[in-house]
Amino acid sequence: MTHHWSDWSTEELLAAKQSAGVRTSLVVPARNEAATVGDVVTRVREALVDTVSLLDEIVVIDSDSTDATYEVAADAGATVHRSAEIRPELGSYPGKGEAMWKSQFVTDGDLIVFMDADLHDWDTHFVPGLLGPLLTSPDVVLVKGFYERPGERGALDGGRVTELVARPLIALLHPELGDLVQPLAGEWAVRREHLATLSVPTGYAVELAALVDTAAALSSRAISQVDLGLRAHRHQALLDLGGMATQILAASLRRTHGVTGTALDVDSAVLRQFLPGPEPLDRIIATEERPPAATIDAVGTTGTAS
């Protein structure tokens, strides 16, 4: 089902939260986002923690930053954890998905909202908008945001990787997700108990994997989407998008049995790209996945899931 962020007032959501007796967490995975993460944390804290109690905690997961992301986020009022230091006995991988997976061990919200740290032209209604379906529709377990991107042609497009990789994959292999406007959007929300059942790619494929696995386990009716209005963020370099696309393809193929009856099961791939000059650029693209958090005991085990 598709909603608009304005479908619920803050008062309605607060009443629903109190009636359900649930806690809510905002998780912001961040890597070298010192320029923007402070504004994200400050604005959300002032609007949704200090003014009203719709959020119970704001947690930034610092994914191996080399700038002042940790300090800026902490000064803005977030609880900040370095991804590599969360459950160190489980090891650590670089990547957005790894930070999101690790967040399950340092947050306590029954409902978890994820937001990217590199936001421009956005507003704090993103958070209540994403919480709306979870607080008012018991059968919904995952909520995706979508938005217009100001100043761009085709303002509702989801970006280059979405249009050239994710949408074709969905059309061919996951048509039950075809109504989602921006399947790779970094703004989404999920019930903790459901997130804990999902295998999580350590890189950029976390959003698509969560959608595919949720639809397979519960049907696409368990997924809702919300129009969040406007949102802009920093664009990735084209060669970096090749790595993102490789991770998304790997996650999809890992979940799809091909003509041989077996799914892709590799933890890395060599992506060969070409720049001016005689030698190609070979990049090792990690495609490993973390197992469902619910399968991790108190002592901790390591491994990948497929």
Your description of this structure?
This protein has 306 residues and is of the alpha/beta class. It has one domain (2-295): Spore Coat Polysaccharide Biosynthesis Protein SpsA, Chain A (Alpha-Beta Complex). The chain is built from 9 helices and 14 strands. It has helices spanning 10-20, 37-50, 69-75, 96-102, 126-136, 160-173, 192-195, 206-218, 238-254; strands spanning 2-4, 24-30, 57-62, 79-82, 111-114, 119-120, 142-148, 188-191, 200-201, 223-230, 232-233, 268-273, 281-286, 289-290. The strands form 4 sheets. Strands 1-10-7-8-5-2-3-4 form an 8-stranded mixed beta sheet, with helices on both faces. A two-stranded antiparallel sheet has the order 6-11. Helix 1 (10-20) packs across helix 5 and helix 6 (160-173) packs parallel to helix 9 (238-254). The protein is globular, with a radius of gyration of 19 Å. The two termini are 29 Å apart.
Give keywords.
two-stranded antiparallel sheet, about 300 residues, Spore Coat Polysaccharide Biosynthesis Protein SpsA, Chain A, 8-stranded mixed beta sheet, disordered C terminus, alpha/beta
